[in-house]
Amino acid sequence: MPRRLMRVTGAAEAPLRSALGRLRTALGVPEGFPAAVLAEAESAAGAPRLPAATVDLPFFTIDPPGSADLDQAMHLARHGSGFRVHYAIADVAAFVAPGGAIDREAHRRVQTLYFPDGKVPLHPPVLSEAAASLLPGQTVPALLWRIDLDADGRTTAAEVRRALVRSRARLDYATAQARIDDGTAPEELALLRDVGLRREELERERGGISLRTPEQEITEQDGSYRLSYRAPRPADGWNAQLSLLTGMAAAEIMTRAGTGVLRTLPTAPGGAVARLRHSAKALHIDWPHHVPYADVVRSLDPRDARHAAFLLECTTLLRGAGYTVFTGGRLPSPAIHAAVAAAYTHCTAPLRRLIDRYTGELCVAACAGQGVPEWVLGALDGLPGEMAEGARRANTVERESVDIVEAALLRGRVGEVFDGFVVEVGEREPRVGTVHLEDPAVVGRVEGDTPLPLGERLRVRLTRADPGTAKILFMAV
Length: 477
What we know:
Mean pLDDT: 89
Largest sheet: 5 strands, mixed
Distance between the termini: 37 Å
Order of helices and strands: EHHEEEHEEHEEHHEEHEHHHEHHHEEEEE
Radius of gyration: 23 Å
Low-confidence stretches: none
Strand content: 15-25%
Helix content: 25-40%
Oligomer: single chain
């Protein structure tokens, strides 16, 4: 999923639509699905592969407002002195025939692409937003995880199997947070805070870190554009912990089975952390030398513009993440994800990410004591490369979309001077770098006649801002 979310809302959407459309064309983003894919999806929607078991629990989903591609539904309960987590994942394989038109198209797309004004889905909406989605009120096939936790939130048992489930409620993050805070949440929702807080504490213990990166939102205000940060709520983090919990359980199951795909990330090199320290200094964020990076990040408030800016810079330490296949019990090295600080895999978003369909199948087979399906084994070696190419395309969409939106925001302000902080300087060309403005919430390229002062305040003049044709450019004053 994108690391730097930017969303266009309200009247501000119309002036940007043509520029974003040109971006789609330039990147070769498909406008729709081929007829054969749509026909197969319509047929599959009415005749999925149904499991024999039905689990009747009051599942619920938590997603952004308006979302229809719902990958996960959950039910939380007390279990002895601990907790039992039921986590249902959309069973895409129940609808997609290996080697069929939908499958081939999914391998071409790899993942859902997110633009500020909409998305380009991995699967046809008749599946991803209807028949295969865990929408409330419809009984659908799912990969149902059951994970038992002790009183401290540590996993004591985990398994996954196929089952029919029925979600009872679709919540957004604001509603979930409000019900938990005011005490009106039913137990299966109220326990999200209990489990989430315990999992966050365990994350701290093992040295992991979850970046609470803010969403950037552009709206029209008084005839012009305004770009601001929207901070995530605590419920966002608690919900994310359940996905992490499941991904760690899946990695453990595949590791024991000897065949699987891990999401791996090497430890960030010392130079990258040192550069981040300069950014912290520039943004007046206290980072004592004896304090680990993870502890600094956890102390930040994404509602604070300076902290939000630093959190966005922290995503640079996530570069280098990839997928590593292992077979025959030969684990890769490294076998962990440095930010999770544990073995981990992606398995909770199969409607939006190709590889999750495969990791889900690997885990189901392992838990059932069955052999891995041939269609899964045959695809394993190619998946890391496919996912890497899909990630490059998604990152380009994200980066170029941000440039377009920021250029639209500043279009009428060429020649103005702004205050900002130099958060990055080119290693080979120190007169070129990145500046983060204090206001508005913009990050852009800056050039100077002399080497730029990394980690220092700088006044810059906007010299270029033309959405869709040229990126914003600042010159040091």
